[in-house]
Every structure is written in structure tokens, then in C-alpha cells.
Amino acid sequence: MKYYIGVDGGGSNLRVALVDETMHLLREVVRGKANPNTLGIQQASDRIQQALREITEGFHEPIRAVGIGISGAPKAIAEKWLRDTVKAVLPFAEVVPSSDEEIALVGANGERRGVLVLSGTGSIAHGANDAGESLTIGGWGYLMGDKGSGYWLGMQALEAYIRHEDGTDTRPTSLVERVRQQCGFKDRFDIIPWLYQPAPDSSKVARLAPLVLEEAQAGDAHARHIVEEGAAELALLAQTIVRRLHITQPRYAFAGSLLTHPTPLAEALCRRLRLPAPPQPRYTPLIGAALLARLTVDPV
User: Fold this and answer.
1) 283: Cβ contacts below 8 Å, ≥ 6 apart
2) How many Å apart are CA 196 and CA 146, to the nearest integer?
3) pLDDT tens-digit series, residues 168-202
4) Residue 253 burial by Cβ neighbours in a 10 Å radius (0-12, 13-18, 19+)
5) Could you give the CA distance from residue 179 to residue 215 in angstroms, rounded to a whole number?
6) Are residues 103 and 158 in the same domain?
7) Enclosing domain of residue 157
8) What is the pTM of this model?
């Protein structure tokens, strides 16, 4: 029996799994964020290495390979750091550097083929064709992109609130009162310290996304318009990958908290991609990281 480790550093938590060659989960460790762009390289390395030590403590079988995908550290720009971080703890294991979107695709489809659309705090799309060519688009972060993401939906809710307060948008919408209640705004200027102090926080804004989805589900016209616009942006990412990789029969996969559950956003995206229902993943991104390691090192 061979054993593999998957490391998923996407989203809000670092997850590490130890599996056998059938992808049966033997152990799992969950820690906080591991994005080196927000934590710093050294702290991110320390967190990943601590989790690797913990998951292998007392496990006496050799680890064949480790697949790792960390948000903010894709293979294209961080391969050496990913390898060095793992090798410091597991010097004899093969290391398969990846990205959080690639391991999500491999997990969802059970293979390194298809088109993944991810919407959580941020948004991104990743695809791979039969020739082994791959492409990632989006994922530029909340300051430059992430349309259709939880952050983007939250910002649309905040914009609806301030436009109502300014009187520049008089359309009736329940979003204004929902934002006021959830954020605890008592005065029209309370939004400024809420948003900017101590510093802008994309996760904090993204936590407003569920109220947009809830109000859209309840029939609020403005919330539904926001959701449809977000779905259009996500569909554009997917369709662009299909076009650029010349994929004739795309196998779509959804990932991220806003698409992996029945939500108005997932339903709207399905309509735009002509899917009867949100595709169900075969494995989680965490197991996808371990599966990618196995497919790369032991492809037969």
C-alpha cells in the first residue's frame, strides 16, 4: 500500500490529509490561513510544516508523494518555495506543487481535465484539455477583480446601502436594511470605520454575500440583479477557458462556498452554462491534492 498527503491552502483554512492509494482518508489536520501574501512567507511555511509534522506523527509508513496547492502561491511563481517547505519535513517524499484551483479541479472531476469555476471569498477559473494544456484566468484579488465572488457580492450590498443613503438610487430593496442590521450601522457614516479600520478585510466583506443570496431567493429585484451579474462574470471566465483551450465538450466543476451548495448564484451560473444542476464533485480539493500527487508520481 502506498500513502499520499494532500495539502489544500485555499480559502480560509489550511487542510492537510493523509490518504492511502484508494484515496481513503486516514488522517486530517485543519489550521488557519496559509496564504504567504497575507501571512508572510516564513509564517506560512511554519504553519504548513507544523501541520505536516502533526499529520505524520506516529505514522511509520513512508509517504510516497505530497500534492500541495496554496492560495496566493501558484506553482508558476512559487514552485521552489512549495517544494522547499514540504521537503524540510518530508525529505524523501516526492513533491507535486500545484495551485488551489488545480487541486479543486482534480478533486471534483477525479482527473486533470475539465473546467473549474470557483467562487468563495474570491473567484477564479481553471481548465485543462485532453492535450494536457492548462489555463487559469481571474484570481486577481479583490482590488483588481474577483467578480462574482463573495467579496464582490458583499461590496455590491454595501454599494446598495451607500447609494440609498446618498439618495442616488431610490429603487426599493431589502438589502439596505439587511446590511444595516448585520453591520450594526447606527449612523450613515458608520460604514467608513467598519470597512477601513484597522484595514480593509476581504473576508469581512465576503460575509455579507449570504444576505445577498437570501434576499435574491426571497425575490428582491436588486439582489437578483446582483446575482445575475455575478453569474454572468463567472460564466465568462468558464467560457473563455473553453474557447482558449479549444475544449469541445467541457466537463464543468464548481468549487467554493458560493457554488458547492444550492444557491441562487449556482443556479444562475448553471443556466448560463446550460447545465441541468450544479455538478457534484467526486472528491474535495483536499483529496484532489493527494490524488494529483498519485496521478503524477504513479499514473498507472
Assistant:
1) 23, 106, 107, 108, 110, 291
2) 19
3) 988 889 999 999 999 999 988 999 999 998 877 88
4) buried
5) 11
6) no
7) 150-273
8) 0.87
